[in-house]
Structures are given as structure tokens and as C-alpha cells.
Design goal:
Blueprint (H helix, E strand, L loop, with lengths): L1 H29 L7 H14 L1 E5 L3 H5 L2 E2 L2 E2 L7 H4 L4 H4 L2 H4 L7 H11 L3 E7 L26 H12 L2 E7 L18 H17 L6 E5 L8 H14 L4 E2 L40 E4 L17 H13 L3 E6 L9 H17 L7 E2 L9 E8 L2 E8 L7 E5 L1 E2 L2 E6 L8 E4 L2 E5 L11 E6 L4 E2 L4 E2 L6 E4 L4 E3 L4 E6 L2 E5 L7 E8 L3 E10 L8 E6 L2 E6 L10 E10 L2 E9 L9 E9 L2
Parallel strand pairs: 1-4, 1-9, 4-5, 5-6, 6-7, 8-9, 20-25
Antiparallel strand pairs: 2-3, 10-11, 11-12, 12-18, 13-17, 14-19, 15-18, 16-17, 21-31, 22-25, 23-24, 25-30, 26-29, 26-31, 27-28, 27-30
Helix pairs in contact: 7-8, 7-12, 9-10, 11-12
This protein binds ligand FHN.
Amino acid sequence: MRMMRAVVLAAACGLAAGERAAEARQQAADAAPAWKDPVDHDARMAWWREARFGMFIHWGLYSVAAGEWNGYKTGGVGEWLQRSGNVPVHEYEKLTREFNPVKFDAKEWVRIAKDAGCRYIVITSKHHDGFCLFKTGTTWYNAVDATPWKRDALRELADACRDEGVKLCFYYSIWDWHNPDFKGSDAGKDRMPMYIGFMKAQLRELLTNYGDIGVLWFDGEWPDEWTEERGRELYEFCRGLQPNIIINNRVGKARDDMAGISKYKGAGDYDTPEQEIPVRGLPGVDWETCMTMNRTWGFKKNDHDWKSEKELVRMLCETASKGGNFLLNVGPTGEGEIPKESVERMAAVGRWLRVNAEAVYGSAAGPFERRQPWGTVSMKREKDADVLYLHVVDVPGDSVLRIRGLRGDVRLATVLGEEGVLEVVESGEGTEVRLPGSIAGRMVPVVRLVMTPGWEVRSVPVRQNEGGGFVLAAAEAELHGRGLKLEQKDGGVWNIGFWTDPKARAEWTVLVEKPGTYAVNVELSCEDAEAGDVYEVVIGDAVLPARTIKTGTWVRFVEAAAGVVTLREGEVRVTVRAGEGLKGALMNVRSLKLTPVR
Ligand code: FHN
């Protein structure tokens, strides 16, 4: 018994110590320096919130290798070639002899960005490999001293950005595979204080020699040697050099692994979800999704998996509809050219923005809890009216835009870029707008609704269809949880995917007007290797446990029975969630069907 008590006491002490450590961490995170106050924050973020769209550039020695080493294609992203290709540092350094980007033209890069509608550019001043695109007195390992090219890329970009009125921002990796003082480079002993001095000297050069810098985009903060405390100190150091600069959340340790979303309020001015658009946005914080156009940040000659122009426009709209910024990446070649596939896609986004700019720049998150079946909504609050921007990704077959839940007076309805006023009617479920034939063939047309103050959004339950059943579509689900999102696997049909968060759930509300017994079926897909996990369909207070079944691939959907439920009259909440012990990805869901049992 004494032992048991000792164990319990020890555990309690352990718990107390853990709580004390967490408390100390939070106190450190809360002890914000004087000038990190909300007023200062809003003032600095103003241009960034207006900008909404930037171009990310990953360029360096890895661009010369282009995803191949000694004739072998390396896996993963191009800028990690030194690691993914197991290339010894002294071998990788030899790429400096080949770095001679004779086709580099800073003015052309900035023109491409500006033509695309990007208001800022974030370029890798130094990635994890430690190679610097700028002249630095801290190391020979830079484009001016170590290569036949002998030019300072950031100097030329700074001049071009200034001339074109595009904000220049620097990506800077804390992790450095070339500097032996960073323990992460297998130096074997902790010389981090030396490395931090080196890093500060480089940051001083970056924040002194190239004019006003919009954002310091830190990265590579995850090695254990870096801490939140060191991040806060570095944040203050950089703000001391340029008080108006914006710094992302990867300067400290708040980022929740690759998601880029902060686990707690730490150093940094905005969150940085990567390769994903948070399913419900990040209410109350500034955030920016960074996204590749294919699958790699740094150039890989064999990566041809390009996202379509429409998908990129759709992502820009979805990000704006949730109140975030979109940082779209290009990976220039070793010769200094942005790949033509990237240039074409950037130009297409630019053409779209030239017509629909007001739906994105300076916009705020739209008023709807979930995506509308046809697309997303951003908005602006003007002095005597609110303006809703309806991004029509999928034009309804009958050309009637049903805005579920919207109630209120529509003072004016138009299509951006077109003359004419649209017909608007109130419907049982909200507001309907008849789309003009002229939008046929347009990529993501935007409907502009000027709303008289007093409008509102009501939740709209799914009603029974003619057969007395319910079809709960993925596109109308309220999604909760990390990573969970809608995707269009095959053509136009949306499904819920990326269901890896054990706490994630999809929800609908139904209005039962005909009580009775209903069979519950889930239209799901599950790759064979991942099948077998338990999920639950919760309808009111009934819980139906079921197991996912093998359907072969993620794109092959089948209707699987989940059970039978008796429904009384009235509104009922329907939830799909993972059961205990989720291993990998649960399943993809296209719809949930409730069919009356005769
Ligand atoms: O490891 C890097 C990666 O190479 C790339 O730079 C991305 C871009 O956000 N950031 C890190 C992974 O989160």
C-alpha cells in the first residue's frame, strides 16, 4: 500500500512538475514585449490583410540538382535533396560550381508576380541547406562568393520590387545543415549560442541592406535545439531592426507540426498552415496558407503533377472566404527561370483577379458556417452596407444560386465584370439568385450582393425529399477537426477527405416532418489497407457503431449500411465521427442517406 501511495505521490509530483513547466511556458509566451500590443499588431498587419495573395519562391542550389542525384531521382520535395539523397555536405557544396543562373531576371520574376495579382513576394534567402542567395560576411557559402554567377539575387529582387511596388519578404531557415554550430547538423556538441550569433549577423544584413522588408518568414524551427524562449528573443531582435516588420509563427515553437497552426499564443504575428486550408479557417487570428502548384517547393524536373488553374483560383477563394492569405509557390530552375507551367497558372490567376479583385483584396471571412453547395463566400463591411461575394465554383444546372440560410434585403445583385442586375427572390431555405447566361464558360464567376443592414444567416436543416428520405451531401456538412476537408476526387462530386484527426467530425441538421424508422447508409470509400476502423453515426441520441469496409481505393465509393434509427418530428443533429483507436485515415464520405423503412 505504501508503495502504491508512493507511486501515486510520485505521479502527482510528476504531474505537478509538468503543470509547472506548462505554466512557465505559457507565462513566457504571455510576457509579450511592450510593442507587441494589439494596436501595434493591427497597424503592422494592415497592408498584409489587404494584400491576401503572395508569391512564394523556393530557389537555391537544390534547383540545379532538380530532384536528381548521380542519375537517381530523389524522393520528397526538391529543396530537401541533400537529405533525401543522402548527399554528404562536401559533395552537395560542389553544386556551387554549377550555380550560374544566366536566365535569372529579377524584373521578370516581379512582373510575373505583379501580373498574377500578388501583392508580396517571399523568397528563400537561406533554406535548410545553409546556402545564401545574398552577399554575406558570415560565410563563403553564398551566391556572390561561392559561385561563377557572383550576383546577389536579393539585391536585384529588392530593386525590382521597389520599382514595381511589390512588398519583398524573406524566408529564413533557423535550421542550418551547413553550419556545424547548429547541433542539428550532427556537430555533436551544443554550440547553439555561437550559431544564434551567426544567425543574428545574417538577419542584421538582411534587415539592413535591402530596404524595408514586409515579412520575415521563419522556418526550420522544429529541431529540439530551438525553443520558444529563443524564438521570442529573436522576434524582438528582428523587430528592433525593423519595428514595422511582420514575423510568422515559425520564429518560435507554437506551430503545431507541419500544420503551421499555433498550439498556443507564442512569438510571431500570424499562423502558417501548409498545403492545407483550415477547414473552418482560424477565427480570431491572422493566418496564411502556403501551397505548392505541383508537389514540390524547390524545382524538380520530373514533378509534373500540376494543380489546374481553376483549382488554384478555387483555393484562393476558399482561403479568402475564411479570412486568410494565400501564398502560392513557384520553384525556379537552376538557370533562373520560373517553369512555364507556373507562369501560365500565375497568369491565369491574374486574369481572374483583374475581374474579381474586390472579392479577395481586403476581404474578410464570409458569414456561413460551411461551404455552399456551389462555392464559397467572402465579404466586406462598408459604411452603410455589407457586401457578400459569392465565388461560384460549380454553376448549378438550373442557373439558380441557392444561398442557404441567407435572410434579408438584397439591395443590389450583380456579377463582377458584367453589366446588368440579377433577379433575387426569397425562398423557403434562404435567398435565390438567377444567374445570367453570360457567365457560361467563365472560370469561377463572382456574384456581388449588396445587403441592407439587418440581414442575417439562419441555419437551414436538410429537409425530406419526395421519397421521404434525406440525402446529406458532403458539400453541405459542417466539418470540424484538423485537416478534414472537402475534395473533388472525380470530377464534380465532393467528398469529405483527409479524415485522420480522431476528433474530427462531420455534422448536418435535418428537419423531420415525417417521423418513422429509417435505414442509415453511408456512401464511403476506404483504401483496403486502411479499412476496418470503427466509426459512429450519431443521430439525436442514437449511436450507430459501424466499421469502414474495403472499397479498393479512395475514389471507389460504395453505400454501406450503418444501421436503422427511429426519428421523431423536429430538428435532429446528425454526426459522423471516428470510434476509438483510429489508426490512419478513417474513410472518405460522399453522403449519408436516411431512407424510410416501409
Ligand atoms: O522543410 C520546409 C520545406 O522545405 C518548405 O520550405 C516548407 C514551406 O513552408 N517549409 C518546411 C516544411 O514545413
